Every structure is written in C-alpha cells, then in structure tokens.
Task: structure prediction
Amino acid sequence: MSRDTGSFVDAMHGGRPLHAEVRAELTRRIDSAVYPTDAPLPSASALAREFGVSMITVKRALKDLQNEGLLTSRAGLGTFVKRPKKFVRDYNMSLNSMDDAQRLGFEPRIDLLSITMEAPADILAGVPDLPRDPMHCVKKAIYADDVPIMYDVSFVSADLGDAFLQLVGKHLIYDALTKIGVKIRKTELIIDATPASPETQAVCGVSSGYPCLLRRYRYETDREGLLFFGQVESPFDKLSCTITMES
Amino acid sequence: MSRDTGSFVDAMHGGRPLHAEVRAELTRRIDSAVYPTDAPLPSASALAREFGVSMITVKRALKDLQNEGLLTSRAGLGTFVKRPKKFVRDYNMSLNSMDDAQRLGFEPRIDLLSITMEAPADILAGVPDLPRDPMHCVKKAIYADDVPIMYDVSFVSADLGDAFLQLVGKHLIYDALTKIGVKIRKTELIIDATPASPETQAVCGVSSGYPCLLRRYRYETDREGLLFFGQVESPFDKLSCTITMES
DNA sequence: GAGTGGTCTAGACCACCCT
DNA sequence: GGGTGGTCTAGACCACTCC
Result:
C-alpha cells in the first residue's frame, strides 16, 4: 500500500471529495505504468480495502475514469487500462484522388446496419430545416483494426437504386461516389462534441455520457440533384480531425 | 403520478436498469416541457417517492442527465432544466476582415487568467513534438452573454513585450494580431472531443467527464518568427464549429 | 463455485441556500 | 430552521466469466 489509510480520510475532510482522491491516485498509477496497458486493475473490493474507503467510492472513481477514457470494465472479467489508439480524419485530403485507406491511415471495415426510409427531421435531432419527408437512410458502423470508431447515419437525396445504396452501405461516401464516377463539389461540415447517442453506445461499446466527436456533413456533387447529408459520431479517444487553411 | 410504481419495478426486471428507466421518463418530461426551461425539478427525494425507487437511483439518473447537458444542479438550490444556447465558430471567415464579434455572432468578454512562462510540453498533454523550453503562455476565459464558453491556453513564440501579451490576454488572437498589423498566413487545426479538463471544469462550471470540444490551433503569421499555438476547450452545449470546402 | 463489475437499497452527514 | 444536492457507508442481489 503506497499511501496509508489515514491520508485519504484526512484529505476528504480538508478539500477534495474522497472519490476524487482515489481517482487521482489511480490516474497516477496508470500514468506511471504501475498498472500497465491492457492489464487488469485490482478488483474494486481489493482497492477499497487498500484505500480504506467503501467499495461504492472506489466504483465511483472507476466510473469517472471510464468516462475519461482511461479504463474499461467488463462485468465478470475485471477493469482494464485502455490502450490509447487514435485515428485522424484529415479533411485536407478529402477532395483529392487518394483512396480512403490512405487518407485515414488504416483499412476500414464497414458493417452495414440498415437501409431504410426515414424522415431526416426524426433522426438528426437538433438540426434545423431538415426534410420531414422520408428519404433513403443508410446506417453503418466503421471499424479500424476491428475496433469500432464511427457510427454513421447518412441520407441520400436521389434514388439511384438498391445496388447504389448497398455500395454506400459498404464504403465511405467518398469511395462510393468515386466508384460511380461522381465528384464532390462542396463539403459543409459542422463539428461538435456530444455525449454518446444510444446507437453509438451500442456500436462502440461506450457508456451514456461518453464524450464523442460529432461531425454533421453535407456533400454536394456534380450530378444534378444528388446530395448527401448525415452525421457520424466517434468516441473521443478513437478519432480526431485536422484541417489546414492557407491565406 | 404519471406512471404507477409497479411499471418501473417491472421494467427493471425485464430489461434496462432502473436508473435508465428513470432517466428516460425525466427526458420525456423535459422534452415535452412538463419541466420547463430554467424551472426547478421536484427534489430528488420527491422524485424517489413518486417513482417508487431509492433516492440514490434518482440521483444516478440526474447525474447522467447532467452529463448529457439537459440539467444542472446547485447544492442547496435545486436541479434545473438547462436553457439550450449554443454559439458557432465559423472557420470560413477566420481569415477575412470581419471582427470577431461579427464572426462569432456575439460580443465576447474575456477574462485574462494568467501570463506566465511555461513549457508547452508540460501543459498541452498528448501533443507530440512540443518545445520543452519555457515560452510565454497566456491563459484566458471567454464569455458570451456572461456565460463561460471557452478556456484558452496559448503560447507565443516571440517576445513582443508585456503590452502585447496583455493585448493577447484581452482579445481573441485574430483581433490581437489585427491591432498590431500582423496577418495570419496559415492555420492548422486539430479538432477533437475530450472530457473536461480540471481548468475547464472550473472556468465553465461543468463536472469531470463532461463532453467538450477541443481545438488545437497553430497560426503562422507574416512576421518572421512569430507564431501562436495552443488549445481551446468548450463545453459541447456551448460551441460548435463549421467549415466549408469547395472544389 | 468463486470472483468480478453493475446495480439497487436504506440511512446518514455535510455544505449550501433560502426565509 | 428546513430544504436542497453532494457525498459516503454497509450490505445485498444479479449476470457474467473463468476454472
């Protein structure tokens, strides 16, 4: 035991909450690799004994560290130090001829979740001026090295047939368009943070409130009447994006 | 009481956790304005009585809803429905001659927190290839309509004197540069989500784990050797940013 | 079967806010 | 003083995983 029980109790009385003290000590141990990456932490009850606090306080600290992206827990298995592995979405290259694998720095695997007719206004909450009539809606999960990193919902304005929708469902949009010889003329992005939606929670295995990067997009193409819009959500520790502007 | 006690207990036994049921019902009431904006919710003990669950379960649901940005609580006062008010940072205009008030759609008020010498590598965690030698570091809080919306840390490469650092501390960087006749030649951005840092928690009054938008920036100027870099953090419900690309 | 994390409860103390 | 949310505790049951 690296700190005696008394220090934690004393700390509570004069300052930060107990669970914050426990969290700080656990953070220190993770940063200094006392608990190495992918290794299981001692159990909650063992930590409670060690720190001289109740198990609930330890669990509160562990839960906060999960939301900070340092830990992940599985019932019946244990609590583990997360391996930090982050991908970058580079928008500077999004309009040139490189394929997505190169652009993203990894080979994505895409799971088509559904192709349905939905009213955008019902799905993309909080976005003003959306169509209230049903459109083709493609939902997919994107993986990198078998780790889920994006949950994507996209709407297609024109009916190019089921084969094209399947293509959209199995590729990133830029690739799908390239395959049918369509170019993107204009890209509008709104970038935002958000707590994980229920769908992202399910796809990416994160809990309610987990910080995620949200990108709402709108692609205009060089084919009359064909445009895409939608949104894609990524856990904060899985993806970031870069943009460069020169003047 | 809009649902009888039994329905919650039954729901627990056959599916979602109890606190998720409570959260869903509270969300419904907030969305349908049963609990209007800025109005206090019934107390945790009253809700516990109403739903027939323990107070801890209600508190767990309330805490989750705080992290989702729907509620805010103050000890001794109550729990309130948050007024949604969000600002947009438009990067498309960042290089033209409009002043920041117009660009942002609001008149910012800026609190200078500190001007110090710091090693960037010590402050901007997780960024590779940062100088390990101390540089001028300006920390500030930015408010819109008296609501804190950004916590900014910036480093200045050259020593232009204390008056200039004060200028940086009291204005957004673009404005500070304009005032001394310097133009930005190149802007590099990394946009990311993150749980609130301790500093952002303090400045913006959000709790640990609150989803925030993180923008790391690097500005090159037309004055030799003068560049800025740093990062700015905003609670997810206070700011988003937009970018448009044409090709 | 033993250990794990996830959940739930009852009961308690504190600091804070209002009147 | 009385109410509020924030915190902490002891104790319990469950589903899950591993042996």
